[in-house]
């Protein structure tokens, strides 16, 4: 029987089981991940994050060869046992965990580079939570999205942030609240890698004090409906700015069922980046026997 020491954390209600495996000796099986995330039989979470040193990654997974400055890699798994490239809430909680566990040298705590399957991301600790530079983004194909609670399928704009998103604008708040996201939305044509689907409505008025405000619910690939999705809020803001055209702000505030996240678009030498700011909480620690 294997016992695992873990910490439970969340960012705006998007919750994770975190554990440390510096030398990469304890990869979990999909069955163990599903057990940990089970809210009745396990700990309960939307995903699992294994803290592993980048240099311990197996060959082939060593995405960090070109950018060896990231000491730690975020090995992120969805609740159904599938891996994901990135997690915007998870990476803030992960940075908080590494600092709280004393796994990061004090001089590296202000800007912490973290390896992910979508490349190295910089996380900044600040007075108003953590900010992660999600890097570059790109538009991908439009698809039709049908969900329970919508009378007809709607067009969804594909946004790639390392992980795949489809953003669907709804007509009003009633439509957003009436969605049944217990079942996954149907996507046409079905994307090969699946997608996180964000449903969004503007607040009234959309722009206040130079900040655009929207409300969002999400059905996450591999986890179902969650209270928040960090990369999803960035995708939603990018899609809304795309639809709004010239004159849209670069500062966005996205309300999700678990709280509020701030998204900012800014120019860099390699093209536009998008960043995400929000809280990161560690709730409790424990030990559990794995199947
Ligand atoms: N909740 C996350 C995204 C987690 C991964 C996602 N379900 C996927 O499969 O891409 C976030 O905060 O970004």
UniProtKB/TrEMBL annotation:
One of its GO terms (biological process) is lysine biosynthetic process via diaminopimelate. The keyword GTP-binding does not apply. Keywords: Amino-acid biosynthesis, Cytoplasm, Isomerase, Lysine biosynthesis. Substrate binds at residues 14, 78, 88-89, 163, 196, 220-221, 230-231. It comes from the Bacteria. One of its GO terms (molecular function) is diaminopimelate epimerase activity. It is an enzyme of class 5 (isomerase). InterPro entries: DAP_epimerase_AS, DAP_epimerase_DapF. Pathway: Amino-acid biosynthesis; L-lysine biosynthesis via DAP pathway; DL-2,6-diaminopimelate from LL-2,6-diaminopimelate: step 1/1. PROSITE patterns: DAP_EPIMERASE (PS01326). GO terms for cellular component: cytosol. It is found in: Cytoplasm. The active site is at residues 87, 229. The keyword Amino-acid biosynthesis applies. Gene3D superfamilies: Diaminopimelate Epimerase, Chain A, domain 1 (3.10.310.10). Its EC number is 5.1.1.7. It catalyses: (2S,6S)-2,6-diaminopimelate = meso-2,6-diaminopimelate. HAMAP family: DAP_epimerase (MF_00197). Belongs to the diaminopimelate epimerase family. Homodimer. Catalyzes the stereoinversion of LL-2,6-diaminopimelate (L,L-DAP) to meso-diaminopimelate (meso-DAP), a precursor of L-lysine and an essential component of the bacterial peptidoglycan. NCBIfam families: DapF. This is Diaminopimelate epimerase. It comes from Leucobacter massiliensis.
